[in-house]
Write a structure and sequence with these properties.
mainly alpha, two-stranded antiparallel ribbon, 7 strands
Length: about 675
């Protein structure tokens, strides 16, 4: 497919792994982790973004965790700018524009004569652009309510888009169109080109779907001024401004969701869900407009570029065959959905026995199991110690990289108004990585730190591959993050003082896996309904709501089967940013979670030598595809039975452990054969 314009990619989040809005929050799940889209191999650093809705605490926990003094990232120190208004940013863009003009003058129409020199010159431009635009993007993510800063960001990205469209469009198109004979001659004459083989192969895969140079240039230049991009940006900004009724107060979404998931009272949880859905109803027209623009654009591109299936464009960029993704989705809709219903039946029984739950609603889906003695609030220092200890137990190398991120002030910790919701890790090649968190002290915030730090360690290990090849393919982009999360979870589980604590932790982990696997594939199914309908014309908000409600039934059962009511869930589709920023990306979380579950199974059976093999996989970045990277572990996701086996091993084993503990503690109303 046409390589995503870097400006579009970084501003819309297309290069960020995840954008997991709602990772551990009620209507949306924890997809990064966002991760990652194998974003534009042209200019601009791939950014691993995995956004989760932070568990901002509005109740008594807020007093326990004072985030006002929590560490902030030191962007100015690392990038060398004094602010987003720094004149040196403009001066650097002036110099970059001149380099782009020289690159075009020297190599357009001549790529077949000196490919190595062309790639090196292009690489130099990529690195320079990454510095300026990554800084601006990161800095403005903590200033969403600062219109002046947002205007400055938009102006710089518009300028970049014009430069890129006019001067750089030729590069990937000519490389993709180069004859195999010419390429082989260049490889023979310049042996150093071999180190760029993965990048070259990646660009050339898109050749059958590229449009003419003139059309591609026009698309790039116009992107910041017209089309879906500005609508999606407006959607995101308006989403961040939403406020919801909480008694006599108006609170942001993160505070409301945190109150819902942390409350031990079903009535309180339901009131939160009702307030959320009521507020989102007022947002439906904005969300529907943006989603119509996205789905319409996707349909037009698929048609014009010749993609055969709805997901083919995304799959090509991720270097995953359509049939592998189809196999994953089929396994989740069957085996995964069975486990999903079984899990929520178990959770329903536990909530009944511990909280007196009479009727299970959607508001109870992510309710915490409040049993045992574990702390409900952690200081930042405690969170750092927990994550470091977990990493150290598995890999001293990764523990050291984590400590570097903490010591070098690469993490923006506190939850504050005007800051982008959720969490992500930005690669910022040459100056990164950087993590944005919304830390409020919950156990899930600790898990989020472990997750995003995995992304950071992955980047630090893969930087050696160079800016064009360091970013892992989507199929492997969540490997370190989810593995890091799993390592920390297992370390804490071993230290659990009581069976009650152990059960509470297991239930929380299964919540996350269900949300990563089943919920994300349910999101994908919703997207399929919307995009298929959009091909015949604009969809109304009511039609999107109908598609959402049908998807809930397909993946969680009809009302009464497990959940007694789906009341006040009709408009939860409106705040899932993935649908707008990265169409058909969400299956990546299911892919990644199940692959990492299988990897962890290998680690448990054969721990000797595993760390070295995993570090080698992470260090390869984008140089290896998923089959080649996973072969040393004896795993092959292209095998049709892989996904079912992985669901059984990863989710099934945790389910059995939780069911047995619940039965021993007399908290379960269900029983299942093992």
């Amino acid at each position: 497919s046409r390589r995503l314009d870097p400006m579009q990619a970084i501003s819309a989040g297309l290069t960020r792994v995840g954008l997991k809005l709602a990772a551990r929050a009620p209507a949306i799940k924890r997809v990064a982790s966002p991760s990652a889209v194998r974003a534009d191999r042209s200019v601009l650093s791939r950014t691993m973004r995995s956004t989760v809705v932070p568990q901002a605490v509005a109740t008594e926990q807020a007093a326990a965790v004072k985030t006002g003094d929590a560490p902030r990232w030191a962007l100015e120190t690392h990038f060398g700018y004094d602010s987003v208004y720094s004149s040196s940013i403009d001066a650097e863009l002036d110099a970059i524009e001149q380099k782009c003009k020289e690159l075009k003058a020297n190599f357009e129409g001549k790529m077949g004569e000196s490919l190595l020199d062309a790639i090196k010159a292009y690489e130099e431009v990529d690195i320079a652009l990454t510095k300026a635009l990554s800084y601006v993007s990161l800095s403005c993510d903590t200033k969403l309510d600062d219109d002046k800063a947002q205007k400055r960001k938009a102006s710089l990205f518009q300028r970049y888009s014009t430069i890129s469209g006019n001067q750089l469009t030729f590069f990937s198109l000519e490389l993709a169109d180069m004859s195999q004979e010419t390429l082989e001659t260049q490889m023979e004459n310049s042996p150093e080109l071999a180190k760029y083989q993965a990048y070259i192969d990646d660009v050339r895969r898109s050749q059958p779907y590229n449009l003419s140079k003139e059309v591609e240039r026009a698309l790039t230049v116009r992107a910041p001024f017209a089309g879906k991009g500005k609508v999606v940006e407006f959607y995101g900004n308006e989403l961040s401004r939403l406020r919801f009724k909480d008694g006599d107060e108006e609170v942001n979404m993160e505070v409301l969701l945190a109150k819902m998931t942390s409350s031990k009272d079903a009535a309180t949880r339901y009131e939160c869900m009702k307030a959320l859905n009521t507020g989102l109803k007022e947002f439906e027209r904005v969300a529907a407009l943006s989603l119509n623009m996205v789905a319409g654009s996707w349909h037009a591109e698929n048609t014009e570029r010749g993609f055969k299936q709805l997901r083919s464009q995304r799959n090509l960029g991720n270097n995953v065959p359509d049939e592998v993704v189809d196999s994953l989705l089929d396994a989740v809709k069957t085996t995964g959905v069975d486990y999903c219903k079984r899990y929520y039946a178990l959770k329903k029984g536990i909530l009944k026995n511990t909280q007196g739950l009479e009727k299970m609603t959607w508001a109870d889906r992510n309710a915490a199991i409040n049993i045992g003695t574990s702390s409900e609030a952690y200081t930042w220092e405690e969170a750092v110690d927990i994550v470091k200890a977990g990493y150290e137990k598995f890999s001293p190398t990764m523990a050291g990289l984590f400590q570097e991120m903490v010591d070098e002030k690469r993490i923006d910790v506190p939850a504050q108004n005007g800051k982008r919701g959720g969490a992500y890790c930005s690669s910022s090649y040459g100056h990164g990585p950087f993590q944005l968190l919304n830390f409020t002290g919950t156990q899930r915030d600790v898990a989020t730190l472990a997750h995003e730090s995995g992304h950071g360690a992955h980047f630090m290990l893969s930087y050696k591959q160079g800016i064009l090849q360091f970013h892992p393919p989507l199929t492997l982009a969540e490997t370190a993050s989810i593995f890091g999360e799993m390592i920390v979870f297992r370390d804490l589980l071993e230290k659990a003082p009581t069976d009650e604590d152990r059960l509470a932790m297991l239930m929380g982990k299964i919540d996350d896996i269900i949300n990563s696997v089943v919920r994300q594939c349910g999101f994908d199914a919703f997207e399929e309904k919307v995009h298929s309908g959009r091909a015949s014309g604009t969809l109304t908000p009511d039609e999107m709501t109908e598609a959402w409600q049908q998807t809930m039934v397909d993946y969680y059962g009809a009302e009464g089967e497990v959940f007694d009511s789906y009341a006040d869930t009709s408009h939860l589709w409106t705040y899932v940013s993935h649908f707008h920023n990265v169409p058909f990306y969400v299956y990546s979380y299911a892919f990644a979670d199940l692959v990492v579950g299988s990897l962890y199974g290998v680690y448990q059976k054969q721990p000797d030598g595993f760390e070295d093999k995993l570090l080698e996989l992470l260090g390869a970045g984008g140089v290896k595809g998923f089959r080649e990277a996973l072969e040393p572990f004896g795993l092959d996701p292209a095998d049709p039975v892989f996904w079912k086996d992985s669901i059984d091993a990863h989710l099934g084993s945790l389910m059995e452990e939780a069911e047995q503990l619940a039965a021993q503690l007399g908290l379960s109303d269900t029983s299942h054969g093992v």
